[in-house]
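Lab channel / #folding
Pinned by the channel admin:
"Please post every new chain as: sequence first, then the C-alpha cells as a reply. Keep commentary short and put observations after the output so the thread stays searchable."

First post following the new format, from NK:
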Amino acid sequence: MRKRHGKFRHFVKKAGRAFANLTIKTERTARISLLLCTTIVAGSCISVSALSIQSRGNTIVADSIENVDAESIMVTTYQEFMDITSSAENIDSSELSADEMKHVLVDGIKMRREYTGTPYDEDEDDEEVSAEVIQNTAPKDLSDRQITRMLTGNTGTVRVIQRSDINEGAANSGSSADTGNANATVSNSSSVTKNFDENNNYVIGIDVSGWNGTINWSKVKGYGVEFVIVKCGGRYTGSGLIYQDSKFATNARGAAAAGIKVGVYFYSAATSIQEAYEEASFTVDVIRNYNITYPVAIDFEKNSTSERHYNIKGKDLRDILCTFCDTVASQGYSPMVYMSKSLWTNSNGLGSYGSEVASKYKVWLAAYFNRFISGTTPFKIGDKLPSFSFRYHIWQYGYLHGVIPGISGDVDMNLGFFSSQTLLDPTVTVNGGYLYTTAGTTISAMQGVTCLNSLGQDVNPSYVSTTVKNSSGKEVTMAAACATPGVYTITYSFGDAYRGTVTESLRLLVADPADGSIPGCTPTPVPETSPSDSSSESSSDSSSASSSESAASSESTSESTSESTSESTTESTTESTTAPIVAPVADDSVATE
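Reply from TO:
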C-alpha cells in the first residue's frame, strides 16, 4: 500500500505543477484549491468513490472508504498537504493561517462535489447541526441553527416543542388590537388597480378572536360568509409569554358546525428563530384536534416602538416567518403570512425579502381604503383592489361595524381569492399581433383585442384602461393616433385578483391612405383584413363587386362570430359566477400556480 501511496503522491505533484502554470500567481488560495481538486479528481480516477475531506482543527481526515485504506490515498495533515503543494506553488506553509487553510479545503470539497454531482451542504461537517445531534436534542433546547437545519428535512422527522415545555401565560380574551391593523391604511386615489372584474372568483370571509365576544355562527353563515380565520393565541408584546385565545375552541367548533371553512392565526411577537419555532409548536398543539381546512397564519404587526419585536426586520423577519411557516407545514397544514402592505414591502418590514417569502407561502394582505374602516358598506363587485407586488390569496380590506349578523360591533372583513384551477399568465392579444388602420379611419383600442385573466376568462372591456403613445413616447389620444400615419404603442391595464395590476402592450400601425406606407415601420405589413370598408378601397370597378361580396361575407361571418362569442362569453360568465369555490385544504392541494 505504501508503494501505491508514493505513486499517487508523485502524480499529485505533477498535476499540481501543471495547474500552477495555468493560474494567476496572486490568487494564492485559488491555486491551492485547484491543486486539492486535482488530488480529489485523481482519487476518483483510481476508483475511490466516496472520497471527501473534513476539517477538524489542524487535521484533514479522509472519510472511511470501503475496502480501501484511506491513509494510503489521501493526505492526513496540513503539513502533509503543504508538502505536496508548496514545491509546485513556491508557498511557505507558514504564510497560510488556519482559516485560510479551512477555506481552501472547503473549496476543494465543493469542487469534488461538483465533479461527482453530489450537492455540498455548508453544515454537513458541523457537529452542532448534524442529524445525530439534532435528533438527540430536546426540541425546546434546539438552537436557531439546529432548528433551521431540521426544517430543511435533511435530519429526519421535524419535531415540535411539547406544550408543557412552553412558558405559557393565562388565556387571553383579546383586545381592541385584534380588530383592524393600525398600519394597513392605503390611499383611496392612487396605487390601486382598475375596477375588479366580476369574472374573478372570490369568497367572503372574516377573522375573529375572543374580543368579538359570543358569535351566532348560523347567522354569520346565512349572510354568506364562507370562511373564518380564528385566532388561536399569541405572544404578549411586553413579557413575551405565550397565551391561548379564550374563545378559540368555541369559535372553531361553532364555525365548523355552521358549515364555514376554518383557518387559524397566531399573533406573533417573536424576536428569534427559536421563538418563532415555539409559537408554531404552540399553534400546532392548540389546533391539532380541530377541523382546520383553511391556512394557518402567522400574524406579524408593529403598533408601538415599545413592543419587544418592533425592531425585527429584513433577514431576521424573513427567518422568523419562514420558521413558523415551515414548522406548521411539516405538521400537515398550509402556511400563510399576514402583514400590512407596508411591512411586506418597506425597509422596516421585509423589504427586499418580500418576494422570497411571498413565493413560498400564501399571502394574507392587510390594506384598507378609508371607507372600509369601521364602515357599514362591504366590498362589492366594481370596487377597487389594492395594487401589490405579489399575488395575495386573502385580502383583509378593513373592518365593518354592525354589518355581519350574529356579531356585534366591528369585525375584520376579508376576500379569499382561492381557486381549484391552475392559474394562467394573463394575456392581451389581437389577431395578427397588432392593430391596423389607415389615417383618417378611427378605430377602438379594444377592436379585436382579447384580455384574459389568471383563470383564462375574458376581462370585461369596460374594466380595461388604455393609454396610447407615439414613437417619441408622448401620450396621445386614440383619435389623434388614427389621424396621423406612424407606429404607436397601446398599453392595456386591468385588475386581476391573483396578479394585481396586469399591464401589456400592443402596437398600433397607422398607414398612409395614399400608398399604404407606415413611417417608422419597415417593411410595411399588409393585414389580411383592413378595419375600413374594403369596397371603398377598391381600385377598379371590376374588383368593386368582388369586394362588396367579400365585405358582405365578412359581415355575415362577423355577425356569426359575434353571436357565437357572445353566447360563449355569456355561458362562461354564468358558469364562472355560479361555480362553487373550492377552498384550500391543509395539504395545500389547491390554489397552486
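NK: The first helix runs from residue 2 to 20.
TO: also worth noting, The radius of gyration is 33 Å.
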